[in-house]
UniProtKB/TrEMBL annotation:
InterPro entries, per database record: COMT-like (IPR016461), COMT_C (IPR001077), COMT_dimerisation (IPR012967), SAM-dependent_MTases_sf (IPR029063), WH-like_DNA-bd_sf (IPR036388), WH_DNA-bd_sf (IPR036390)
UniProt domain O-methyltransferase dimerisation: residue ranges: 18-106
PANTHER family: O-METHYLTRANSFERASE (PTHR11746)
Protein name: O-methyltransferase
Swiss-Prot/TrEMBL GO biological process terms: isoflavonoid biosynthetic process; methylation
Domain O-methyltransferase C-terminal: 131-330, 336-437
Amino acid sequence: MEPEQTSEELVRGQAEIWQHMFSYADSMVLKCAVELRIADIIHSHDGAPITLSQIASCIDSPSPDIPYLTRIMRLLVRKNIFTVHHPSDGGESLYGLTHISKWLLHGSDISLAPMILLQNHPLMMAPLHCLCKCVKEGGIAFEKTHGRQLWDFASQNPEFNNMFNDGMACAARIVSRAIMTGYKDGFGCIGSLVDVGGGTGTMVAEIVKSHPHIKATNFDLPHVIATAPLIDGVCHVGGDMFQDIPNADAVFMKTIMHDWSDEDCVKILRNCRKAIPEKNGKVIIVDFVLQPDGNGKFDDVGFTFDLMMMVNTSGGEERTELRWKKLLEEGAPVYDGVSHIAGDMFHQIPNADALLLKWILHDWSDEDCIKILRNCRKAIPAKSGKVAIVEIVLHPDGNGTFDEIGLVFDSVMMAHTSRGKERTQLQWKKLLEEGGFPRYKIISMPALLSIIEAYSE
């Protein structure tokens, strides 16, 4: 039975629903302020507060409706986007800028005005009406609404393409400031860089401006590159990142991966890997990292962006750190001193002085583990080789911190694998002997896993 709610809680809940219901009006009023250039008008008066009459006189209209403007300003003041001062002598109210409205200035390096116009355009808003349909039927909301996917639509509609590029460019300028401050040392050792999905080149232009020694390439779809301006030190190249990426010391990708599914991201990452040097190449990814329980300034925005990715892209999404880790591992990034080799451990294992198996053997039956161990035995030197196995060692009657969890993991192996299991020390001893390792030692750690060192002699 649900606990009875107080009348105050119910009223508060009702008020919040009303706020959610009409939150679209907040966005539309914000868009209106950008279209009327209200922040720019106040800013043009040296940023000093001005009257409503002064604002109206600068609006591009022969006869602006003052009552309309009054009510729009009232809501914008309520939202702290502008300030209002009512003179004690009864004179006209004075409206001023705030730390929020400064982000609405056109032509400013820290303006979000083009992004506001893009995200609140009817073409971008319409797909949101298909959310319920997508839940029931699947598919991409943008495609259901406009008959084609976002990138195809942009390539066929120059006006929308320009608006989209302007929105991305303003976001790039803002992010570039943060990157140039927080990652300024990351570009020093790079001789060449390719900005994949770099749009019209705003981001890479900022990088080259701060690091003129870098030979830079701006890489994007041909219809995007067609509108890119000439930038000193930057070569614009049209192409498809799913086919091939230009070679460089480093690959840079800003808010690209969130547009694509995991499978597509892995394809992109593998092409990145081909494009950079094997030993000292790197990929720089600038994207959201979702914090599900976070309370940072941008944590809520991350979840809103995730919804927009669902609506506008084919499988795109924002990801948590754990999801990023999995994606990068599947994309086979380059690590200094590490070679990636594909193969089958049941058939053959590459030769080495030592082998590491972390959480591998618990996935397999005893028979399969013996096959793996015998291949390990063949891969290492007969006298000095060893295998380091990182696994759970069960203590059925133990009362250690992780002993009970080990038994739970054993149940999970039983449910999810083909005869995989966790093992006791006695079972490990039997398995290792049959696999060709008569000598071993177990190294306990203050963790769930132990290290089992197995020696060939």
